[in-house]
């Protein structure tokens, strides 16, 4: 990558010996359109993700899509800080009767906005169709429930114990924490040679 970056600005002169041990020079002019600054940054991020995750990332011949670029940025944030945080206008949370009962209790104590927390033993981010494992994850959604207390009570009266229910959270913030990665980051800070 450093070579490509230099080559975009400077002329490259290659020196080699022919069969008669004579020096020959080949001049390659600058290649300004070889890679854009943004593409170079993306490739540097991919290298960082590989170093930190141990996952070999293969860029497809089709190139990097907008979705892949978002996944690269998300993975870099995960492996650098051990968490991500995103704001959304609306988030749909799927839960069950127990979640609604907890929400109902929060409404009665006038505790809006509300926090909904879910724990996942394994997680991953898809990059170029491949799953990059990110380990144990805790997802917290904070926001306002687009439902009144009476709506929740009405649902509780008709909902079965294990029946799934979707709840719309508005003005939401989604925080995803990755304890396994956070632990590795802390260990690397204590012992920089440990990686």
Structure description:
- There is one protein chain.
- The chain has helices at 2-7, 37-53, 66-81, 97-108, 149-158, 179-190; strands spanning 12-17, 23-28, 83-95, 114-120, 124-127, 130-133, 137-145, 165-177.
- 37% of the residues lie in helices and 32% in strands.
- The protein starts with a helix and ends in a 5-residue tail after the last helix.
- The protein has a 4-stranded antiparallel sheet with strand order 3-8-7-4. A two-stranded antiparallel ribbon has the order 1-2. It has a two-stranded antiparallel sheet with strand order 5-6.
- It contains 6 helices and 8 strands.
- A hairpin with a 2-residue loop joins strand 5 and strand 6 (130-133).
- By secondary structure, the protein is of the alpha+beta class.
Keywords summarizing the entry:
195 residues; alpha+beta; 4-stranded antiparallel β-sheet; two-stranded antiparallel sheet; 6 helices; 8 strands
Could you give a quick summary of the protein structure above?
With 195 residues, this protein is an alpha+beta fold. Helices cover 37% and strands 32% of the residues.
What secondary-structure arrangement, pairings included, does this model have?
Layout: H1 2-7, E1 12-17, E2 23-28, H2 37-53, H3 66-81, E3 83-95, H4 97-108, E4 114-120, E5 124-127, E6 130-133, E7 137-145, H5 149-158, E8 165-177, H6 179-190
Antiparallel strand pairs: 1-2, 3-8, 4-7, 5-6, 7-8
């Amino acid at each position: 990558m450093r070579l490509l970056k230099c080559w975009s600005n400077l002329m490259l002169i290659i020196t080699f010996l022919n069969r008669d041990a004579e020096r020959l020079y080949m001049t390659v002019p600058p290649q300004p359109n070889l890679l854009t600054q943004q593409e170079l940054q993306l490739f540097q991020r991919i290298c960082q993700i590989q170093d930190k995750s141990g996952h070999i990332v293969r860029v497809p011949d089709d190139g990097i899509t907008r979705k892949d670029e978002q996944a690269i940025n998300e993975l870099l944030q995960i492996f650098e800080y051990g968490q991500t945080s995103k704001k959304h206008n609306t988030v749909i949370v799927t839960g069950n009767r127990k979640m609604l009962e907890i929400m109902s209790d929060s409404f009665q104590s006038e505790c809006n906005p509300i926090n909904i927390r879910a724990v996942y033993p394994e997680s991953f981010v898809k990059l170029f169709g491949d799953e990059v494992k990110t380990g144990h994850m805790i997802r917290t959604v904070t926001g306002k429930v687009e439902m009144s207390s009476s709506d929740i009570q009405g649902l509780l009266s008709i909902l079965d114990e294990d029946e799934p229910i979707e709840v719309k959270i508005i003005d939401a913030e989604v925080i995803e924490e990755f304890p396994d990665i956070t632990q590795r980051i802390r260990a690397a800070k204590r012992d920089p040679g440990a990686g």
